[in-house]
Recover the amino acids of this structure.
DNA sequence: TTGTAAGCGTTATCAT
DNA sequence: ATGATAACGCTTACAA
């Protein structure tokens, strides 16, 4: 310690009260017993001295620091409410949340950054970690420091492909099914699915759910896979023109759906009169058309809350238990485009 | 420690290397000297054992935990980027950020919550705190635990009325002046100021800046004070009708400005043809008209960065130094309504 | 260059 | 109900 007067410690209280440090500890933590008299005395002195327990020391001693780490992309966007959801839960558990923001979405640099944040959390002896992974291909070697110390981790929003661990995210399959159900009310004959790519799990699951939801309806389903959750105007125009008559369109992302709406407007096709359009709330920040798009709102707040809850349950849980997958149901927001 | 194998400590490395703990400490922290041979040996073993320093202990020992607290309102909104800005700075300084979100904007409950979060940060021995206060009237007694321990605090966005301390926020006065300057290009004869209330510092400062900016222009300035940063449609309509001929309107908040635009449209007054309208980016989330409103964007990211920078400079600064006020210049966003 | 001893503020453990 | 002592993992201060 550099300079200045020492911060008040249990020792100081003990001296003033004429008891041992242990008695102070017992009174102040509420664990163990003490006479009513000493209890009152000690509590009084603690208040007078503005005593505050040193959680660092307590953490060293008990193995629980009461801090958890949350690692998210630096451009918070969609994850803002996830963070808030996690906070909501942890606040109730008197857990401090160390937020770490990772620059970039992929690439070596982002991975290095992510790993650095993980290390910092280990160094601070966080009780657990919530991670939205940048490095989706990370193997268990990547997480060795966490594993070594049995620090529980819950992954959110994006699944890790190589490393099995607890996960909380949107139920994309169910969302797809719900989209199908909603679409069926139009009694369509032929519908188009605008997907991203089979290798993108969210897209794949949404499509799978949608197809399964239509399975016994006899509706004809055609699909066009744009490589990403986005399409240029010309690509979309080409696709829609080629497809000919359609009664409905399900896009696995809002950006695709908004593009659809624009093109359909150009083509003088009425929505939802001629064609119904459903998007999926990939970004949650729709543009001009977005506000009126029938889509699925993901519930990042709930994802955050559930991730926190799951993580908390893992903390202090002795051995290993089977991996859990908590899937949060998206909400259909009917804005009349389908 | 409850169960399981002990985490690897310097002691473990020391034993394996056949040296003392101090040598390990010196090598791993880079402070002090050691022979090239032992250095290599120790570093090798540390890596093999996946050693990670215990920052808690280091914090206890050195008085610097490398953690700072950031306390913001629970509905992050505008503060999202402030948080990101603070992170950007602290990440570079290898500082962990403990985020605390306070429920509610005023009232006893929120204050209790805020104080609780402050206490938790003290308990975790944060090196410093950035606070967007809920409790603006808080006196120094409110912050006694921080003061007692000489934990530096920087207040952002809202000033504390009773307690002098470092502050970083938007330069409202300058914003007002800039609005005036912009307005003058229209060569107006008569302008209306839609203010909130004199007791709201941000409103007051914006108006003061605006008036000062027009001082020598000879422009006639009339002012209507709505109690808040908001007006009902009927109130605004009444005011605009009563005022008669106007060349420009400066609203201290975007919500007021958007209301203005709507009423003017109803009144068939062209903007910016007949009247120029300037708002102030109170919320940053403009509605339909907002996207086209000439207004001031506050720079929460920069506020966060500067607050972090200021706080960091205070950390480890020995005695007390004069209070600093860092004012961030808002950006004029000309969307053509003035 | 390296080591020893003491201490940081608390809890765990075993007494009394 | 209370206390003494060790331990947690590291750094500071002082030797050698």
């Amino acid at each position: 310690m550099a300079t200045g007067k020492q911060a008040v410690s249990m020792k100081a209280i003990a001296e003033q009260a004429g008891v041992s440090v242990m008695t102070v500890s017992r009174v102040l933590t509420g664990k163990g017993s003490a006479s009513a008299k000493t209890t009152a005395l000690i509590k009084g002195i603690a208040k007078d001295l503005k005593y505050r327990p040193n959680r660092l020391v307590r953490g060293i001693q008990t193995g629980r620091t009461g801090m958890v780490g949350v690692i998210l992309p630096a451009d918070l966007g969609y994850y803002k409410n996830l963070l808030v959801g996690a906070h909501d839960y942890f606040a109730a558990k008197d857990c401090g949340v160390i937020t770490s923001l990772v620059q970039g979405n992929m690439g070596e640099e982002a991975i290095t950054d992510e790993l650095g944040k993980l290390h910092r959390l280990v160094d601070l002896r966080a009780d657990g970690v919530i991670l939205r992974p940048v490095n989706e291909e990370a193997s268990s070697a990547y997480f060795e420091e966490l594993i070594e110390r049995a620090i529980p981790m819950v992954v959110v929003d994006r699944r890790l492909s190589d490393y099995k661990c607890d996960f909380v995210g949107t139920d994309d399959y169910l969302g797809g099914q719900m989209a199908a159900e909603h679409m069926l009310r139009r009694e369509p004959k032929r519908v188009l699915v605008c997907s991203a790519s089979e290798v993108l799990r969210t897209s794949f699951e949404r499509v799978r759910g949608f197809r399964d939801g239509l399975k016994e309806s006899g509706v004809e389903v055609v699909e066009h896979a744009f490589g990403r959750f986005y399409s240029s105007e010309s690509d979309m125009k080409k696709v829609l023109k080629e497809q000919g008559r359609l009664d409905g369109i399900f896009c696995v992302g809002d950006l695709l759906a908004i593009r659809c709406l624009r093109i359909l407007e150009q083509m003088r096709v009425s929505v939802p009169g001629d064609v119904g359009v459903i998007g999926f709330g990939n970004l949650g920040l729709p543009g001009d058309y977005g506000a009126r798009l029938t889509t699925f709102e993901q519930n990042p707040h709930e994802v955050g809350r559930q991730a926190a809850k799951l993580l908390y349950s893992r903390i202090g849980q002795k051995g290993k238990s089977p991996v859990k997958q908590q899937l949060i149901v998206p909400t259909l927001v009917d804005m009349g485009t389908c």
Notes: Residues 65-171+300-331 of chain A form a domain with the Rossmann fold fold (CATH 3.40.50.2300).
